[in-house]
Amino acid sequence: MNEEAKNMVSASELAEFCVKAAEDRKAEDIVALHVSEVTFIADYFIICTVSSTVQGAAVQSHIERSVREVLKVRPISVEGDAMSGWVLIDFGTVVVHIMSAEQRAKYQIEKLWGDAPTIEDQQTLGNLRPGKA
């Protein structure tokens, strides 16, 4: 098996891992939407709320670093910044939205994608947690 094939991770595993990484930095109101049936943009949207720009930057950094170090996946792009109240991390199959409470209330992404089912933490990653390689 080549090195690239060993590093393949499913969209659901990546989504669950991002949820756990956001939880590690105390993000709140984390919602994981399985959007593959309603859009071709991604398979999952992860949406979470942070209470400050410092926390937003910490959540962003932790998700990016943990996914890179443990799952060997890098984001395709990162848009916005903690100061704006909305950071979007695009991993291709998974898009993470880190939002201030104000931005989340204003844009109501969950309602935009309301036809998408939410996913529950299925514990499929076992002991594979951010920071534990």
Q: What's this entry about, in short?
A:
The protein is an alpha+beta fold.
Description:
The chain has five helices and five strands. It has helices at 3-6, 11-24, 53-71, 101-107, 109-112, and strands at 28-34, 44-50, 77-81, 86-90, 94-100. The chain has a five-stranded mixed beta sheet with strand order 1-2-5-4-3. A hairpin with a 4-residue loop joins strand 3 and strand 4. Helix 2 crosses helix 3 (53-71). The longest helix is centred in the middle third of the chain and has 19 residues, at 53-71. The two termini are 21 Å apart. Residues 1-6 and 120-129 have low confidence and may be disordered.
Key descriptive features of the protein:
single chain, 133 residues, alpha+beta, Beta Polymerase, domain 2, 5-stranded mixed β-sheet, 5 helices, 5 strands, disordered N terminus
Quick one: CATH class? Alpha Beta
Q: What order do the helices and strands follow? A: HHEEHEEEHH
**Model regions low in confidence, pLDDT < 50 over at least 5 residues:** 1-6, 120-129
CATH topology, by name, is: Beta Polymerase, domain 2
Shape, please? globular
Question: In angstroms, what separates the terminal alpha carbons?
Answer: 21 Å
Q: How many discrete structural domains?
A: 1
The helical percent reads 25-40%
In DSSP terms (H or I, runs of 4 or more residues), the helix count works out at 5
Structural class, by secondary structure, is alpha+beta
Which radius of gyration do the C-alpha atoms yield? 14 Å
* Order of strands in the sheet with most strands: 1-2-5-4-3
In the CATH hierarchy, the architecture is 2-Layer Sandwich
CATH superfamily heading: Beta Polymerase, domain 2
The major β-sheet equals: 5 strands, mixed
